[in-house]
Amino acid sequence: MTALVHAREWVGGAAMVLLLRRLCEGWGGSSQQAAAPLRDLTRAFRIVVVPVANPDGFAYSWKGRRHAAPSGSEPPTAGHSEQGDRLWRKNRQPVPGSDCIGIDLNRNAGPPPAAAAAAAAAKAAAAAKSAKGKGKGKGKGKGKGGDKGLPEATSSHPCEIIFGGRAPFDGVETRVFRRLLQRVDAGARSLAGAGEAGEAGAAAAAVPKWGKGKLKMYLDTHAAAGMFLTPWCYKKEVPAGAAGAALADTARKVVAAVDGATPGGRAGIRAGNCYTTIYPASGVWSDHAYDAHGTLQSGTYEHAMPVGGGGGGGGNLWMPAPAQIASSTDQLAALVRTVAHEALRKDAPMATLKGQAVAASTPEDLLL
Ligand SMILES: [Zn+2]
Prior knowledge:
By secondary structure, this protein is α/β, with parallel strands linked by helices. The protein contains 11 helices and 4 strands. Strand 2 (217-230), helix 7 (241-260) and strand 3 (270-273) form a beta-alpha-beta unit. The longest helix has 21 residues, at 324-344.
């Protein structure tokens, strides 16, 4: 599970840390509905949590806060300066050829479809050229004509907050995420090598054989649209057959579970496939888990926030009052239990890529 891929979405990180505490204590939550122990989950799963998946972006958003409340009763308000910006979303990585900073990491885990198509066309053209000596195919570059062909919520412009990077996985954190999933999926005992190592070769050699299918669920948490999003974000189609039916079933159960963990019984979250429920986007982490690892129960949770953002933040959804954290954690705990339960079902169909068993593929194959 990951949180704070987007720096400003603080409640995701706070709820994840509190959930971790509850997992460690075997405690399900403060509400009646969430009273079932989470202890069972820790017996059934090895749970890997990255509570701050975008550390430099998060630090930058932290430095941008104003009037941090010593009492803890009021949320910090937004501000920005040279030191930081409370509403920063991307990481803080320099972008070659641009004065603008940062990559939207949740647009960077895989190629935008347009880039993949252009790369495939260029490859085909190059192959034709070398075969014939003089090919007529043209490998048209992408991006020059703006964002034609990209999903609407992904940009190739570095100054945009939804900038997906110059290339897939050129974000440091996205590469770490990719390696971490590989190690978890392979059942590696140690996950330490997932980080950026001084000797990249040694780190690569330490990665166990990829694709053992140990990654049974993946959940990325964001704020604050109040949604549970299943694959895919980059295309309108939903997974076919039993996989699609299982995801729709999970989505329905998640809504019920989150409602059940909400005082009054209605959180008002929407659930469904990402593309139509929120917006089309490419390079999304939960799509990567699904496509590259065949992890069926893979989704993105957008925490729900009360209208007005909890007060004190000028109605900003990313600045909930601290008091919001416990109830958000109740909802998250209910959701995690639900998705995990679905992942444990013996008859759960595994996702496949192009009809092929995922374990037979390699990560490189999947980048197209
Ligand atoms: Zn987000």
